[in-house]
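Deliverable D4.2, example record:
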Amino acid sequence: MRFVSINPANGQRLASYPGHTRADLGYAIDRANAAQRAWREQNPAVRARYLQALARVLRARREELAALATAEMGKPITQSLAEIDKTALGCEFYALYGPRWLADEHPPGAPANTRVTFEPVGVVLAIMPWNFPFWQVFRAALPALMGGNALLLKHAPNLPGCSRALDKIFTDAGLPTGLFQVLLTDTSPVGGLLADPRVGAVTLTGSTAAGRSVAALAGASLKPGVFELGGSDPALIFDDADLDATAETCATARLLNSGQSCICAKRFIVTRPVRREFERKFVARMAARRVGDPTDPATDIGPLARADLRDKLHAQVQASVRRGARVLLGGAPQPGAGFFYPPTVLTDVVPGMPAFDEELFGPVAAIVAARDEADAIRLANATAYGLGATIFTRSRTRARRIIPQIIAGTIAVNDFVRSDPALPFGGAKQSGFGRELGVGGLRAFQNVKTVWGG
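Output generated by the structure prediction step:
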């Protein structure tokens, strides 16, 4: 099997890479297991120095790695550069705080002769997507490695060049051989990998369908996991919001990574008194974003990562329009080379339409009318997902009243949802379970052991 890299900006083939055989995967587990047995004995402060080395390699190769991400999945170059910067910061963050989070604890109220220790689970299998080729991998790898585990990466098949670059980053940072390995393979070996007793846990970022499949395999082997899955994040816009600032923030939230992010705001639930004014301002902000060559720093929106993703997005738009949604902006693939879809705004969106019920992975926004605050909250929660949400209001009292009523892993007020190395990140309902990042992300790959005496 070979893995082909396609430039989504023009549809041209970039390169082809040989995949790994079943025998290769077996050797990879052998190497990971051997490396992990030695790595777990390293003091966390020593592991932290390797994470600092990773940050240095990332910063030294910032432009090269950003260009590769842009070439393989179409991310605008300024956002690719920001992704590398964030990844390096993540390395430095875990190097600084990881050792103290792994220190033994004595919980309040526990007997005097007890303590809680944290020990690695072994080899972690990471199944990662294409939309953040470096950050997604590192936000799984950093807590796993800091905690004394090894990591096997099954990356997205359309990113073989980024996968090879990741392998080289970890090698050149001096990490022990076998501790981090990339598996160039399809999904068929995942069940066998999870069944191997040397694999202690799995982490997956991807679609809800992929999460269900891998969670079932992990459950069959009683392996713990962290699953960050899809989202149809609501933005609740109330009549006391600053509509100019709200429209600008909502456009940014919807078009991050060309709309290809689980935590992009997707459903814009607007109370009726300000609906028309918000529509006008929001459409203007969406229309002002520049679509084009992702290597141009002036570009805001690049192509979708694959042709099939653009086709699926357009089918969702068409189905929503057939069921009564109206197009205020865009609404059709951009003609010419590449997999471009222009900024699109649909209104009159209601439950039962794909634009409401499904995740739209691209630059398409759905405007939903709400009668009042209670109706907006009802509509926000009327989804299978629960990843993120945003609230736009000038009233802190209103925001604090609404926050507990929205089912989501992250809520932003008058801002857009994002991840940060210090904060737990994940979702509720069909958006997954477990948490990445922060202390919870580190301990997700630990055996939490209670010790009496000793």
